[in-house]
Design goal:
Acetylglutamate kinase; nucleotide-binding; alpha/beta; 9 helices; ArgB; arginine biosynthesis; 8-stranded mixed sheet
């Protein structure tokens, strides 16, 4: 019998954890193969070069692993920076950007002309996958004017919209062709106006229209905190009803994200997850490991689960 030299045995043993990691991913690969995952890309992950690169790797990994990733992006930091450069006021009400016609011009320019193009370029560095579009294209998203609610009163925040219809045919055609759609959160209304759509809201609506397996929202926190700011304990899983009870106490920045998650799981999306986009490869850690790394929202009739599998 041939016995491997000690050096080769040591190298083989050192590689074992890598094999275990791959095997750990096997149930999730089986579970999610062929399923659509809508990912909202935002926060610090959009402005940090290493995080942007890691995100692109994760999305292409999903594509090669047999999933159908769809990316919906905003561009809050880039829009704010451009508005500052132009001397235009930038303000928020109830977590939504107040959007004047001048601001809307900047929003369209930054989202479709800067953020989207850069993300498409990063994805296509790994192969001919990504195709950029906006919610305006092929009537993919139709919006109506949205008002913010402050202390129970409606507040006009300009050209901010809420989605009333999704025509997902163009997105489905791209998926069927093996592409990765990258969609800017802009939509046209029946009144002819173009509206700024909160990217969390847009991603949730698109996930529902596509019958997605999951909605993933990347943000700048670890997940949904149990008792913020008194505690930094992250809730690993909660039901739609439990989330609804928490909504009135959420910070304004988290409100649109969790509203989107709630809408999604109550409209047929199997799970919605909020992940820390500041952590490299958090997308893969959440989907393909037993522990998961963020907060998962499930429908009320979903039995308790652990890890990334639901």
């Amino acid at each position: 019998m041939k016995i491997a030299p000690k050096g080769e045995q040591a190298r083989s043993n050192a590689a074992l954890p890598k094999a275990r990691t791959l095997i750990e991913a096997l149930p999730w690969l089986e579970r999610f193969h062929g399923k659509t995952v809508v990912i909202k890309f935002g926060g610090n992950a959009m402005v940090d070069e290493e995080l942007k690169s890691a995100f692109a790797q994760d999305v292409v990994f999903l594509r090669y692993a047999g999933l159908n990733p769809v990316v919906v992006h905003g561009g809050g930091p880039q829009i704010s920076a451009q508005l500052d450069k132009l001397g235009l006021e930038s303000s928020f009400t109830a977590g939504l950007r107040v959007t004047t016609p001048e601001t809307m011009d900047v929003v369209r320019m930054v989202l479709a002309g800067q953020v989207q193009r850069e993300l498409v370029g990063l994805l296509n560095g790994h192969g001919p996958f990504a195709v950029g579009m906006t919610g305006e294209d092929a009537h993919t998203m139709t919006a109506i004017k949205r008002y913010a609610v402050v202390d129970g009163e409606q507040v006009d925040i300009g050209l901010v919209g809420d989605i009333v219809n999704i025509e997902a045919g163009a997105v489905k055609a791209l998926i069927a062709d093996g592409r990765i759609p990258v969609i800017s959160s802009i939509a046209r209304g029946a009144d002819g106006h173009v509206y700024n759509i909160n990217a969390d809201t847009a991603a949730a609506a698109l996930a529902v229209a596509l019958g997605a397996e999951m909605l993933v929202v990347l943000t700048d926190v670890e997940g949904l905190y149990k008792d913020w700011p008194d505690s930094d304990d992250v809730i690993s899983q909660l039901s739609a009803s439990e989330l609804e009870e928490m909504m009135p106490g959420l910070a304004s920045g988290m409100l649109p994200k969790m509203e989107g998650c709630l809408r999604a799981v109550r409209s047929g999306v199997h799970t919605a997850r909020v992940l820390d986009g500041r952590v490299q490869h958090s997308l893969l850690l959440e989907i393909f490991t037993d522990e998961g790394v963020g907060t998962m929202v499930v429908p009320d009739d979903e039995p308790p689960v652990t890890g990334g599998l639901a």
